[in-house]
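Quick illustration, no need to memorize.
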Amino acid sequence: MHGEKEHPEILVIGMAGSLRTLSYTRMAVELALAGAAEAGAITETIDLREYDLVLSNGNENEKAYPEGVFRLRERFSKADGIILGTPEYHGGYSGVLKNAIDLMGFKQFESKILGLVGVGGGTLGAVNALNGLRVVGRSLHAWVVPHQASVPQAWQKFDSAGNILDFELESRVKEVGRQVARFAYLHNSEKALEFLNEWENAPQNPGG
């Protein structure tokens, strides 16, 4: 293997765009992180209740930001993969999540592997919110994994301890985390990077 680690160390972090004490969104994110851990990643939960964030208002004087903003940026900058979770409010993702993202930028998201999970109170779950987040991820130059998980009628799907009651739904949510970890491994593989460099530097086929 010429000294190359077969599986490089991967950090996947998850953040829920909800500040509720009993948060189904946070439960879904934790479940997705469990899937990433099953795939061999190191995982970490970002609880926005523990960060003293301000409303993003385009203030150019970042020295006035509270320390929590810089702690949040640091954690995201160190991650190889990111899982974002949101409740669906009025057909979109939460303002709490949007504000946290607006306090960050390309340094935190660019070239990172991004997975999305959402919860909703209705039968459609959080499909619209997740579609909106997918656009945000692409705009920040993140690699958004193809699979996403929407939990409909979340109040019926979890118990108070955060255990999901639907086996098929559990598998779908965990698959988000597994995909994030797998793509992050591939993205950080020396062999994969070597192949991409060779492909980019290969001479063009004049007959192509």
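The radius of gyration is 18 Å.
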